[in-house]
């Protein structure tokens, strides 16, 4: 098994994602932060042996961030000319590779329609900066990730969402989570790993009950926690990786209570 491969007790998630890519369908990975959406995209890239170009969305995302930009280039003879530096969308299309759009609902709705032709049957784009018509090469695939209901996110435009097939990605747990911690962290104390998994189950229960935010139970935080537990006491590791990220005193106290119960 390759280092960092996406693992989930629901094997249909990875299997269906591979099938969708083979059918050249756009995939929308939907799930809470830290649930492994980017890891899944990276694993698909490795499994299909197709390089991946990533776009990280924010309110500042613009056409240049997606497509590229013009700049002045000075050649060896000192002559200057204006050239176009291709962005991730155009690179992925021309090279027949994967385009990964992370947190797609963080982008302003008016920015993304430029991708409509890329995401439908045409797989085509007219570069507004150069006038070049770009037709995606074979192998081009689009994977996007969405965190719904988070601060800074916006409802996803229905016309855009309709261009994707959705795969729900939830947090992992139990023996699968044990395996992930063993593979992706430096911790190899199985007894402590099992305690961390049980601790995470309590965090997940508290997130479902609305006592703490979902970020506190992310797999990403658990990997960091497990790494830190190799060099410091577990309570300090939890403080550094989870508790100190929270601003709500009640959330912090709820996690401290869970620490006392589990460790």
UniProtKB/TrEMBL annotation:
SMART domains: AAA (SM00382). Keywords: ATP-binding, Nucleotide-binding. SUPFAM superfamilies: P-loop containing nucleoside triphosphate hydrolases. Gene3D superfamilies: P-loop containing nucleotide triphosphate hydrolases. Residues 23-173 form the AAA+ ATPase domain. InterPro entries: AAA+_ATPase, ATPase_dyneun-rel_AAA, CbbQ/NirQ/NorQ/GpvN, CbbQ_C, ClpA/B, P-loop_NTPase. Belongs to the CbbQ/NirQ/NorQ/GpvN family. PANTHER family: MAGNESIUM-CHELATASE SUBUNIT CHLD (PTHR42759:SF1), MOXR FAMILY PROTEIN (PTHR42759). This is MoxR family ATPase. The lineage of its organism: Bacteria, Bacillati, Bacillota, Bacilli, Bacillales.
């Amino acid at each position: 098994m390759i280092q960092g491969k996406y693992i989930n007790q629901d094997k249909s998630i990875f299997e269906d994602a591979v099938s969708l890519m083979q059918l050249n369908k756009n995939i929308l990975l939907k799930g809470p932060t830290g649930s492994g959406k980017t890891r899944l995209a990276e694993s698909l890239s490795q499994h299909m042996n197709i390089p991946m170009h990533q776009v990280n969305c924010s309110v500042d995302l613009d056409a240049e961030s997606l497509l590229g930009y013009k700049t002045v280039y000075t050649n060896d003879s000192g002559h200057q000319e204006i050239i176009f530096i291709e962005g991730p969308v155009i690179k992925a299309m021309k090279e027949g590779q994967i385009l990964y759009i992370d947190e797609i609902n963080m982008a302003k709705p008016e920015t993304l329609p430029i991708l409509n032709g890329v995401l439908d049957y045409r797989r085509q784009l007219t570069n507004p900066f150069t006038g070049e018509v770009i037709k995606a090469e074979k192998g081009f695939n689009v994977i996007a990730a969405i965190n719904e209901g988070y601060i800074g996110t916006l409802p996803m435009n229905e016309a855009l969402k309709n261009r994707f097939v959705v795969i729900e990605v939830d947090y992992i747990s139990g023996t699968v989570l044990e395996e992930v911690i063993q593979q992706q962290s430096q911790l190899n104390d199985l007894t402590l790993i099992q305690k961390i998994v049980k601790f995470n189950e309590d965090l997940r229960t508290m997130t479902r009950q609305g006592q703490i935010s979902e970020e506190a139970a992310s797999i990403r935080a658990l990997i960091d926690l497990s790494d830190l537990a190799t060099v410091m006491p577990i309570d300090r590791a939890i403080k550094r990786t989870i508790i100190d990220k929270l601003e709500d005193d009640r959330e912090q106290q709820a996690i401290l209570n869970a620490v006392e119960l589990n460790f």
